[in-house]
Amino acid sequence: MNTQININQLENGIRHIHRFVAGTKIIHCAIMFDIGSRDENENEIGLAHLWEHMAFKGTKKRSAYQVLTYLDSLGGELNAFTTKEKICFHASILDVHFEKAVDVLTDIAFHSTFPEKELQKEKKVVLEEISMYLDSPDDAIQDDFDTYLFPNHPMGNNILGTVESVNSFTQQHFFDFIERNLSTSRVVFSSIGSIDTDIATRLVQKKLDAISSINKPLLRKSILDFKPKHFKLNKPIQQAHCMMGKHALSVHHSDKYRLMLLNNILGGPASNSLLYLSLREKHGYVYSVESNYNAFTDIGAVQIYFATEKKQVDKCLASIQIEMLKLDEIVTKKAKLEAYKQQIKGQLAMSEENNLGYMLMMARSLLDMGKVEDIENVFQDIDTTTSEQLIALRQKYFDYDSRVSLTFLPI
Question: HSE on the CB side for 312, CA within 13 Å?
Fold first, then answer.
């Protein structure tokens, strides 16, 4: 694939990263803020997510209808998402309409008016979203688990907020939140497509140069010490749902790709993961089981999730403990470890084929690390990983006895 990546910093501090990819008519682009739900105060839980919603509800020059239909009428898509550390507005459209996409993204990201009339309607939408998640135990357990994994910390708050917090928000809350957290040096415009880099840079500068420079320090509450605990909650559900995990490596740690490899062996997305082969294929305890490693700017988390019949929870937990310990033996077998290395390298390479996903990854990487890591350097980290390093990581991050766990049990 013919690809080039260029990074350009505007005078106001906003950075534009563009990846040239030949052979596509679609351009994907986004404005990403290094602001997320962890930046909310105690009286603002859910505000970042509601900002994401309200950005579509009117700007200084567009009505809500115009925002929602402008790119759609051109065959494009406009969307957004909120995470614990990021808010992102993104679009996909024919490359001939790139300037229009840049214009509408800039408009909703920096010039939203948060009209009170629209706010009252959108609160109802978010409350329905909260209800939808509460009715889905596999989603609800993730939010509840974070509360126990990051107790008394904004990282443990539900991104959607609560019924009480959402109902309390006014127009002024958004202006105060943005004024307190926005710094143009922590904003990235990311794009990927077959548009020439110089043209893409010129069109982005044309729209974003007008944004005033704002420089504020990033102030985030540090994570408290980890303490293993176990919780069980009775719920009106059919299956038992269980999640366990602990704090792990941040996005800046040199061993993050080694931990990713280890997690992939244990419970990654492929059907040859140890947990899948044991809990589903060998014993038939579960339909799905997964292990995940998520890296944030100052911490990370490893988590295992499964759902099963109530009477089989203990059997699943015993099997998970066995498979964790089995990791130590497997990674010492040269041929097996090499096969797992090739597997994750293939997965990472395939992810580069997804232009939308890669565009979003570029934005996150630039915000978090100031660069986009070359995949060959990632491969080198994986290739040079030793069994001793993986065993040390397993003992620290996949130690069965040292974990937080949450189980939803059917009433």
Answer: 17
Tell me the CATH number at 405: 3.30.830.10
Burial string for 161-197 (b: 16+ CB within 10 Å, else e) reads: beeebbebbeeebbeebbeebbbbbbbbbbbbbebeb
- Whether 217 is covered by a domain: the verdict is no
Is the distance from CB of 355 to CB of 191 less than 8 angstroms? no
Nearest to 74 by CA among 31, 25, 30: 25
- Residue 245 resides in a domain: yes
Largest CA distance in the chain: 63
Instruction: Give how far the C-alpha of residue 65 lies from the chain's centroid of Cα atoms, to the nearest Å.
Output: 28
Mean pLDDT by 10 residues, the chain (411 residues): 81 98 96 98 97 97 96 97 98 98 98 96 96 92 95 95 97 97 98 96 97 93 88 96 97 97 97 97 96 97 98 98 97 97 97 95 97 95 98 96 96 91
Distance, in Å, from the CA atom of 209 to the CA atom of 205, rounded to the nearest integer, reads 5
Q: What is the pTM of this model?
A: 0.95
As to burial, measured by CB atoms within 10 angstroms (0-12 exposed, 13-18 middle, 19+ buried), residue 355 is: middle
Query: Residue 95 domain-assigned?
Result: yes
Burial class from Cβ neighbours inside 10 Å (0-12, 13-18, 19+) for residue 125 reads exposed
Radius of gyration of the chain from its Cα atoms, rounded to whole angstroms: 22
Report whether 366 contacts 359 (CB < 8 A): no
In this structure, the strands spanning 187-193 and 15-21 are parallel
Q: Which of 40, 52, 85, 122 is flagged as catalytic?
A: 52
Structural domain for 156, as ranges: 3-208
Written as six digits, the tokens of 127 are: 């409350």
Task: Clarify whether residues 347 and 265 are in a common domain.
Answer: yes
Kindly state whether residues 19 and 140 are assigned to the same domain. Answer: yes
What is the reported pLDDT for 134? Answer: 86
**Domains in the chain, number:** 2
Is 194 a domain residue?
yes
Respond yes or no: is residue 52 known to be catalytic. yes
